[in-house]
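Example with several molecule types.
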Amino acid sequence: MKPFEKILQDNKTWAAEQKAADPEYFNRLIKIQSPEVLWIGCSDSRVPADKITGTQPGEIFVHRNVANLVVHTDLNLLSVLQYAVDVLNVKHVIVCGHHNCGGVRAALSNQSLGLIDKWLWHIKNVYRQYKKEINALADEDARVDLLTELNVKEQVLNLAKTSIIQKAWKSRNGPDLHGWVYDLRDGIISPVFDMPAGSRVDEIFEYENL
Ligand code: CO
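Resulting structure tokens for the full complex:
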């Protein structure tokens, strides 16, 4: 059986099991979508948002990209963010990175990998900002892990710099922003940076007329 055929077969098994355990499962889910959390995570296959958080369908709204970046020209991310914040009224936005992130590791190298160089450019800029403390670490894995944490922090700051978040903070004092890192070695998530609603960012990024 080919991998894609196995996925289709496993899907049928899963659907049947859900229905057997709870006959109303799908009828209930079809009617509601009111997640309280937007999750921005890495595309890495080892960090499935709902599995590692034990959340059920309907509980978290998810956006994933390589190295969980918040890029101000990314229409995809911005659309997810705007819909989650303005329409779903999520209470929390979480940026979750993970240790041993391939995107972060690649950004720390001088190898060109093709088109993705343009995306990793944003992580190189985070590195440039914290070069001194990252270079102070002798071990390469430790450097990748530190850049992973600093990258999460910078992506949370990037969220706070959007007019979408600033407008919501003014109008409804939410959502709170959180930066987390998932450890592939033991499955534990550690918080690394928080920005409660109403936090300040560098003043040049604060919009007065929202
Ligand atoms: Co990753």
